[in-house]
Amino acid sequence: MPSGPASPTYTSGAIGPSPTHHHANHPPCQGIPCTDCTLLAHAYRPARWRRSGVFLGRWHHSQIGAAVPRLLHTVFSVPHVRTRHIAIALVAACAYSTGVAATFGEIKAAYTPSDTLILDRQGAVLHRLRTNPTVRKGQWVALADVSPALRTALVLSEDKRFYAHSGVDWRAVSAAAWGNLWNTKTRGASTLTMQLAGLLDEDLKRNSGGRSVVQKLGQAVSAQWLERDWRKDQILEAYLNLVPLKGELVGIDAVSQTLFGKAAHALDNREAAVTAALVRAPNAKAAQVTQRACAVLQSLEAHADCEALDLFVSGALQRKAFDTSEGIAPHWARYVVRETQRAAQLPSASPGSTQPAELPASIRTTVHAPLQRFAVQTLQTHLRELRQRHVEDAALVVLDNASGEVLAWVGSSGELSGAPDVDLVTALRQPGSTLKPFLYGQAIAERRITAASLLEDSGTQIQTASGLYIPQNYDHQFKGWVSARTALAASLNVPAVRTLFMVSPDSFHKQLVRLGLPLKESGDFYGYSLALGSAEVPLLHLANAYRALAQQGRLSPIRWRAGDRTAPSTSQALDAGAAFIVGDILSDPLARARTFGTDSVLSTRYWSAVKTGTSKDMRDNWALGYSARYTVGVWVGNASGAPMWDVSGTTGAAPLWAAVMNYLHKTQSSRAPQAPAGVAQVPVKFNATASSSSLATAAEAPRQEWFMNGTQQTTFTTDLIATRALSMGASGQKDPGFPSNASKQATAGTGRITAPTTGTIIALDPDIPPKNQRLTFTAEGSQLRWQMDGKVFAKGNTAQWLPWPGRHVVRIVNSKDDVLDEVKLEVRGAGVK
């Protein structure tokens, strides 16, 4: 049976004349050295054109580059139109090879995954975060870490003579040409090296209509250069990492993780066959991929069974892409990426704009993975226990005191949260009583008070723009005169407000700013409520301010990148002596016993200083404290701002703080810091005097107390008469900002309410246990009955009432229900149940 013409045979080796020889009689050359016109020589002599691919691989880029301009001049002298077209194509292909080829090392170094790996301080992976939304590329995979099955499947499927040819498979080229001539279906002639050349060079990449003749010639030329400079294993490794696969997936790591949920080294024969099939047709339908994969599988296994392959392929192609964020530190990862981009931004041509630098494949950070894992698990376990109290979120941060390194960062409760993407370490929240240590520290530094100064804890009214502001304390009774040590450690509100009156809201505001708190408004805006934490601050900044207390008042930025040796900028944000005294107070379990008891979760077996706080309506709950080496900050609440139910500082954030601090000190001790210069410790005692035994209270026990030099005092005396009506400052003088209960005329002339007064606004402290949230009313007269909103609730000259949010009318009436006096008041804050 007749057949087509015999296939042409090819011989390899250098062709054409010597590079230095001139063809005077060669029409295309016209006297030009043959180093410049060899391409045209082959176009002019079709018998040699067939071997030009081999020939092109013999010339250096610089030789070809220098030849191109003169070749372009010569091309248009070629007499035959068809031959001229071939020559133009060859010159264009030659132009693709004029640049210096990149080395394998350069290509690998320039590779950027779509995901950035966030590493801990030891190099362990904390989190994987997608940072390129346009394409999905995994980590670069070394050839040794690719499944042998996949390496074999790829070569058998795409380039059977990969290890034999030098970039171009001339047998495949001739077979393809022969098939095209006789309209016979054949496989493509592109080798893996040629395909890699197309991936490396933008000009050679396939477009929607396929590659042009010029691009294919360019591929052949570039493939020979790659084969000359790269090893076969490097070519295969680069191809596996750069080849586009299904959809947005590029490279073997992305496809193996997405379609099969495993690393590239673990792919079996069936998975390798499917992957190789996708190389040929990345976006083909499942049936086509199955057919192709079956052929590949049978080339790997002679008796492979493809019966169930269709179900396997359908399942793999429908598998959901692996998560854009995966690990144990999502919020930390996003913070690190933002800081990396910010630190690496380059100035651009347009003023005021920036051009972010490319992110590295991995970033090593200061976080300690075992601590991070413990913090996440402990936080989620604790929140599950609080679920019935309408709590779903928490955040936690751990700092190294000396270096400022972030050791743990938990931004939310994850799946337990209604807003898992919100980073509550950096979110603005009201800090409650956690600002008090800085207030007392400032007052001590300015020598307005000492740790032993007596502050009056009694009913106090503060005139504000919106009316009278009346802060409340932990239990149902005020404690009279207390020392500043007790007032801070026991978190008493009234003494804190009195202290702010001495310092002034504006001055305290400036102190908080010096400590790094980003307050948005002025001190006058917050007013006296600033003492109780009415401003909004992030947990991160608040924890760093507590770290400044641990560092004797020195403030420095946090560190997040491992190995960062740059000298930090440090400022003395608070007097060292004052910071030391505040730390001593916060570490005193006896001083905090009046509010928290002696067996509080805040008491540790090692030295530590800690403060809790709760914002209005129980929306935010805090515990911040430090040991000799670490600072731990915890926030508990709801990202939505919804209030919690009956959650105080000791039940919300404090258990988390204690658990993490105990973990840090499993094998480490923590000793009290040494006193800095400028402070001295002296013995003090407290005497109580009173004009009435009913007003007498026990004085605080004698003790050793720390003082700033020049403020030492050994004896402190309380004047209990003042606790009934007058508002007193630490000096014992009446403060004009704390008015006494002014006399009022009773409506019937036989009785009057002495406390509270009309216009009173009662601000409840969410830290107070509900059973202790009672307000005491007093009146003058006889046979009195008390009415709240028209209903009798008590008899006598005093009455106690559990406050409830809203506006209320309080009346006293006689036995005939005649109204003797009335006051109107408003209760703000969480309701008491």
TrEMBL record:
GO molecular function list: carboxypeptidase activity; penicillin binding; peptidoglycan glycosyltransferase activity
Pathway field: Cell wall biogenesis; peptidoglycan biosynthesis
Polar residues: bias regions: 1-12
GO cellular component: outer membrane-bounded periplasmic space
Principal EC category: transferase
Region: Disordered, residue numbers: 1-25, 730-752
A Pfam family per the record: Transgly
Biological-process GO terms, alphabetical: peptidoglycan biosynthetic process; proteolysis
Family: In the N-terminal section; belongs to the glycosyltransferase 51 family.
Protein name: peptidoglycan glycosyltransferase
Species, as recorded: Rhodoferax aquaticus
Phylogenetic classification of the source organism: Bacteria, Pseudomonadati, Pseudomonadota, Betaproteobacteria, Burkholderiales
